[in-house]
Amino acid sequence: xxxxxxxxxxxxxxxxxxxxxxxxxxxxxxxxxxxxxxxxxxxxxxxxxxxxxxxxxxxxxxxxxxxxxxxxxxxxxxxxxxxxxxxxxxxxxxxxxxxxxxxxxxxxxxxxxxxxxxxxxxxxxxxxxxxxxxxxxxxxxxxxxxxxxxxxxxxxxxxxxxxxxxxxxxxxxxxxxxxxxxxxxxxxxxxxxxxxxxxxxxxxxxxxxxxxxxxxxxxxxxxxxxxxxxxxxxxxxxxxxxxxxxxxxxxxxxxxxxxxxxxxxxxxxxxxxxxxxxxxxxxxxxxxxxxxxxxxxxxxxxxxxxxxxxxxxxxxxxxxxxxxxxxxxxxxxxxxxxxxxxxxxxxxxxxxxxxxxxxxxxxxxxxxxxxxxxxxxxxxxxxxxxxxxxxx
Amino acid sequence: xxxxxxxxxxxxxxxxxxxxxxxxxxxxxxxxxxxxxxxxxxxxxxxxxxxxxxxxxxxxxxxxxxxxxxxxxxxxxxxxxxxxxxxxxxxxxxxxxxxxxxxxxxxxxxxxxxxxxxxxxx
Lengths: 392, 122
Known about the structure:
The complex is a heterodimer of chains A (392) and B (122). Chain A is an alpha+beta fold and 392 residues long. Chain A folds into two domains: 3-206 and 376-391, Nucleotidyltransferase, domain 5 (2-Layer Sandwich), CATH 3.30.420; 210-367, 2-Layer Sandwich (Nucleotidyltransferase, domain 5). Chain A is 36% helix and 27% strand. In chain A, strands 1, 2, 3, 4, 5, 11 and 12 form a seven-stranded mixed beta sheet that branches. In chain A, a hairpin with a 2-residue loop joins strand 16 (240-246) and strand 17 (249-256). In chain A, helix 7 (260-271) packs across helix 8 (275-284). With 122 residues, chain B is mostly helical. Chain B has a domain at 36-68. Helices cover 28% and strands 7% of the residues of chain B. Chain B is built from three helices and two strands. Chain B is elongated. Chains A and B meet through strand 4, strand 5, strand 7, helix 4 and helix 5 of A and helix 2, strand 1, strand 2 and helix 3 of B.
């Protein structure tokens, strides 16, 4: 980064930006209430005392890390952090910038990494370089040497310590993709070891199955409604994950790496705009029900969104044909995840499904009420079931 | 009777010795293309209850190898553990991260799901 640019940024940030609110957790002790339910009282700045039920869900996505806990009154408390970094070489200018701003950073080796939303703000302000991610295609980014150390710093700061000793935790993992030889076993083992070192009783859970637990899709079979049965799809940044469940059990799981990030990259390449600019337009302006075709980025995003939806339908059809799965009932498809949040995304998927020949009947495509939090909430529900099982 | 040895007159009855060229023939090996020697070897081993060594099983006259059945999960585990070692002096200017958003769901539905999941295995 040149000195001039840094000086400009320094002027911009000096005095701006508020320090992030920090929660101060007191020592928590589990107590049994009148309904024989274990709760943990946590004091923080926002609430005087929050009573959490033991069991924590973590959605470790390529774009975001989301942690969910449930309180005694049924509220989900979701803490989210954008999984993004902006690297700065150690220099006097860089140190000056970090001292005068409120940007959050980690120093690993010979580099500073500005973390989270600040990384995107900084890269857009500087207009040079690109944000990097500790994760890529749903797993640890192999091209970033410091990825594990950075990711653990971030995860630890977002998840926090266990609320009770050996608290159950479920973290989301992707299924093996159909379009890449990636094996996620090693990624899963690293995360499990990490959470166990933090003091959690941690287990992995399939990302798409988390949506099944959170959104409860219904299959209609012989005029009966079967709960926790149907197809769920998590459209994340690095991957989209899909699962077919029957009564809470996973029957088929697979994923594909051509999701949100792929969209951004393709649009950036085809239009010549920076990826960070594409992300900004996608998140702030894009409405797939009413695309502004005069905007080149929006027009390209619309084309690639169609491609993504068509690819999803193609793979659903292909996977179920290959497996000779026979579904007698009518299926509900539930969609969640950050990439599904562009208005009109589900309508496009619905239309693509209507015009295709799937080996089963679909009676509805539903968008999760809380698309950004469904994976973490589902993982939390699964973790609370684990804790409940353990306590019996 | 004297024993005469008939000798051909010079120039008559001469025969050229025919020398046949020796043609080298490769021994014929009867091989069925559909026959997989690995499968056959495994089937025989199984039939006679033979415990084949698991890591380095060579099958003579075959390009095929038996799959490596060595359990590498311990190596993976050790490697995963090594990844968690902090190298060098790292520092951060934050203790905790992230923004908080609360959502509400039907508590009865969530409790029913938890009940159902409690009955399931991993």
